[in-house]
């Protein structure tokens, strides 16, 4: 468990460093190919950060509303409340709010900007189809997302992807405007032409690479939450068995949408489960997660 946690934390750091270097490289190229210089780079950061600021502070309310979730009644769901309270003590966290989604598809997610403002939500399908140990494994996974500040890390990655997308779009628009007769800020000669070609290629490719890196980051955080959750319960088989049942279920989540799919313990879109879509999936293959859990 400790090896898995350390490995996934290290890989997260590597991805974030590469992310930052990619943003800086594109910012440099943007400054060299336009008249904005460094100011355009900073403007992109401000715009992207501003758009994420709202979602970061209000994501819990937005997501709960989108999924028609209701706060759990302790009298109706005492085992869920007791499990969350016990896991909170074990993790050294404040007890998060507990919400229920009336949906036959077994799934769960955690949201909130920090442990003091966090929410754990499970579907009625999860509670009906999983036994107590499996439910506790799922809850421990979601609690680990809260403890590991995965919401914050995902928000940062969204900002970086948005900055890259803005810079790339602005750079390509600037190049098209220059070719139509506007004044550019590029260098002349063969070297300048080569630099412009490289900048255009990077502007086209970097956003795709950045999105793939964001998916990779999300997958590493899922592996980390699996290992951290197993450490909380001291019973990896509970979560492994839960993942088998969740991925084997034929019910699709009624309120599934691409904006919130990454938050769930398993991708809620049934048609995205498979090896072909693994590269573009926010979740690692369930079979790999189960194999790792059972090897602990």
What does this structure look like?
The protein has 296 residues and is α+β, with helices and mostly antiparallel strands. It has one domain. Helix content is 66%, strand content 7%. It is built from 9 helices and 4 strands. It has helices at 2-33, 38-66, 78-91, 124-129, 132-147, 150-179, 189-233, 236-248, 286-294, and strands at residues 70-71, 97-101, 108-114, 117-123. A 4-stranded mixed sheet has the order 1-2-4-3, with helices on both faces. Helix 2 packs across helix 6 (150-179) and helix 3 packs across helix 5. The longest helix is centred in the C-terminal third of the chain and has 45 residues, at 189-233. The termini are close together. 41% of the residues are buried.
Brief account:
The protein is of the alpha+beta class and 296 residues long. It has helices spanning 2-33, 38-66, 78-91, 124-129, 132-147, 150-179, 189-233, 236-248, 286-294, and strands at residues 70-71, 97-101, 108-114, 117-123.
Number of structurally distinct domains: 1
Sum up the overall morphology in one term.
elongated
Number of strands: 4
Low-confidence stretches: none
Series of H and E elements: HHEHEEEHHHHHH
Mean pLDDT, to the nearest integer, reads: 82
Spatial separation of the terminal alpha carbons: 6 Å
Q: In order across it, which strands form the biggest sheet?
A: 1-2-4-3
Radius of gyration: 22 Å
Class from helix and strand fractions: alpha+beta
Strand % is 5-15%
Count up the helices.
Answer: 9
- Largest sheet, if any? 4 strands, mixed
Helicity range: 55-70%
């Amino acid at each position: 468990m400790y090896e898995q946690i350390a490995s996934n934390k290290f890989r997260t750091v590597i991805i974030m460093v590469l992310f930052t270097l990619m943003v800086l490289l594109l910012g440099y190229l943007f400054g060299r190919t336009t008249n904005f210089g460094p100011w355009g780079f900073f403007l992109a950061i401000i715009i992207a950060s501003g758009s994420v600021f709202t979602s970061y502070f209000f994501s819990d309310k937005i997501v709960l509303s989108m999924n028609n979730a209701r706060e759990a009644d302790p009298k109706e769901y005492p085992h869920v409340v007791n499990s969350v309270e016990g896991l909170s003590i074990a993790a050294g966290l404040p007890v998060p709010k507990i919400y229920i989604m009336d949906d036959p598809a077994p799934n769960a997610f955690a949201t909130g900007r920090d442990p003091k403002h966090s929410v754990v939500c499970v579907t009625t399908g999860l509670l009906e189809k999983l036994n107590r140990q499996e439910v506790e494994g799922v809850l421990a996974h979601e609690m680990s997302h809260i403890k590991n500040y995965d919401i914050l890390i995902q928000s940062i990655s969204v900002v970086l992807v948005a900055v890259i997308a803005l810079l790339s779009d602005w750079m390509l628009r600037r190049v098209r405007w220059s070719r139509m007769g506007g004044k550019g800020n590029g260098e002349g000669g063969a070297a300048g032409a080569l630099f412009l070609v490289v900048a255009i290629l990077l502007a086209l490719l970097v956003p795709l690479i950045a999105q793939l890196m964001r998916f990779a980051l999300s997958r590493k955080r899922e592996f980390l939450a699996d290992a951290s959750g197993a450490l909380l319960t001291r019973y990896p088989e509970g979560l492994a068995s839960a993942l088998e049942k969740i991925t084997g279920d034929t019910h699709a989540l009624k309120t599934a949408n691409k904006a919130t799919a990454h938050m769930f313990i398993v991708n809620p879109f049934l048609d995205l489960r498979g090896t072909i879509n693994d590269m573009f999936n926010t979740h690692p293959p369930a079979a790999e997660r189960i194999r790792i859990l059972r090897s602990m």
